[in-house]
């Protein structure tokens, strides 16, 4: 079965990356069961950017006609804003484009949606991934990123089939607890190929984690720590988003727990650069191609579901992301997880950034006549 994917690309950026981006789409189609429809729109740097509601209608039409499963936003694509009543949070809302049969209302007229009406299908219909470079120097960052994807798909850039999990002491029970990621990653890579830091009385030290990342080329880096959009805090020290831009080696995929870690709306001190922690892991010097985080003061609790989907159903990252979103972005989940809250005013704020066409434990230079090859 071939997945239909919509690629929405910023018309101001496209001419500057066209050759490498066309190569990227070709290489993805050679390796994954997908087909693309390309839509160019006026991005945020245009004098007349497309409105999020108008873009959502385009996605709804494509979903209705083609059974679309995902959308890749390339460049400075406009986004909807959500006012998360709990904790007085606000930020960009990916689920606005994921839940296509639901509805969103701005009940107080402040320009931010604050009420989510669920459709007949309770959760999201499609996944959303933002291939969104820092606005300052975005042509450079995009072309360098697309060169990374090419080197990975052709086998020049090689990862070690290992994972690294690091937990701030506040979250060290998430190694093996009900929402822990270590057991699933051990199933994928083997017990000896999952490194951990911060377990039990151990604390995470920024310099040690930095050294670990610079010495290894992991496939997955799974983190649990406090953060804001431009700083990732460990028990001792932390990483700024600008420091992460210079990281070498690192991990192919980084999954962040930490407030505002993927917030490209209000990244303090970086507007209009949009350089948040998740963006830095993707568009920096490291081998990173995908990262996830949250838009406001929440954490991504159910990351293990992404790994389970990849392990059990051989899903690529975009479809695996939808598995998690289809669980947490529902009224049923909110009623169970937060029984005191109104599910119509509660959104998780999860955001996926980078390249959604990645597998875990995957050999990129496989025989292209085969659909999948896992080692």
Please give a structural write-up.
- By secondary structure, the chain is α/β, with parallel strands linked by helices.
- The chain has two domains: 3-128, Gingipain r, domain 1 (Rossmann fold); 148-354, Rossmann fold, CATH 3.40.50.
- The protein contains eleven helices and 17 strands.
- Strands 10-9-11-15-16-17 form a six-stranded mixed sheet. A four-stranded parallel sheet has the order 2-1-3-8, sandwiched between helices. Strands 12-13-14 form a three-stranded antiparallel sheet.
Give the total of domains: 2
Helix content: 25-40%
- In DSSP terms (H or I, runs of 4 or more residues), the helix count works out at 11
Name the CATH architecture of the largest domain: 3-Layer(aba) Sandwich
Query: What's the number of extended β-strand segments?
Result: 17
Please identify the top-level CATH class of the largest domain: Alpha Beta
Low-pLDDT stretches: 268-272, 366-375
- Average pLDDT, all residues: 91
Radius of gyration: 19 Å
The end-to-end distance, rounded to whole angstroms, is: 23 Å
Name the helix and strand elements from N-terminus to C-terminus, one letter apiece. EHEHEEEHEEEHEHEHEEEEHEHEHHHE
List keywords for this structure.
375 residues, alpha/beta, Rossmann fold, 2 domains, six-stranded mixed β-sheet
In short:
With 375 residues, the chain is of the alpha/beta class. Helix content is 30%, strand content 22%. The chain folds into two domains: 3-128, 3-Layer(aba) Sandwich (Rossmann fold); 148-354, Rossmann fold.
């Amino acid at each position: 079965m071939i997945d239909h994917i919509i690629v929405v690309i910023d018309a101001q950026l496209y001419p500057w990356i066209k050759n490498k981006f066309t190569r990227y789409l070709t290489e993805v189609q050679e390796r994954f069961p997908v087909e693309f429809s390309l839509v160019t729109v006026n991005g945020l740097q245009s004098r007349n950017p497309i409105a999020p509601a108008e873009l959502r209608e385009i996605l709804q039409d494509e979903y209705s006609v083609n059974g679309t499963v995902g959308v890749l936003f390339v460049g400075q694509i406009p986004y909807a804003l959500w006012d998360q009543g709990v904790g007085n949070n606000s930020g960009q809302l990916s689920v606005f484009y994921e839940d296509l049969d639901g509805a969103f209302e701005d009940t107080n007229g402040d320009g931010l949606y604050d009420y989510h009406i669920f459709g007949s299908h309770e959760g999201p219909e499609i996944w959303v991934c933002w291939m969104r470079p820092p606005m300052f120097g975005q042509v450079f960052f995009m072309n360098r990123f697309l060169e990374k994807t090419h080197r990975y798909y052709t086998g020049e850039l090689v990862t070690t089939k290992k994972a690294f999990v690091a937990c701030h002491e506040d979250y060290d029970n998430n190694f093996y607890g009900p929402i822990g990621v270590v057991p699933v990653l051990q199933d994928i890579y083997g017990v000896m190929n999952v490194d951990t830091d911060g377990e039990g009385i151990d604390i995470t030290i920024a310099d040690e984690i930095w050294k670990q990342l610079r010495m290894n080329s992991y496939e997955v880096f799974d983190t649990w720590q406090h953060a804001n959009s431009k700083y990732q805090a460990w028990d001792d020290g932390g990483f700024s988003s600008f420091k992460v831009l210079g990281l070498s080696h690192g991990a192919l995929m980084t999954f962040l727990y930490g407030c505002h870690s993927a917030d490209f709306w209000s990244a303090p001190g970086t507007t209009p650069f949009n350089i948040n922690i998740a963006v830095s892991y993707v568009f920096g010097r490291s081998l990173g191609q995908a990262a996830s985080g949250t838009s406001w003061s929440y954490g991504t609790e159910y990351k293990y579901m992404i790994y389970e989907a990849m392990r059990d159903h051989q899903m690529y990252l975009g479809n695996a992301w939808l598995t998690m979103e289809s669980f947490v972005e529902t009224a049923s989940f909110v009623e169970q997880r937060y029984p005191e809250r109104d599910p119509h005013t509660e959104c998780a704020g999860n955001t996926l950034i980078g390249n959604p066409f990645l597998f875990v434990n995957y050999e990129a230079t496989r025989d292209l006549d085969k659909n999948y090859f896992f080692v």
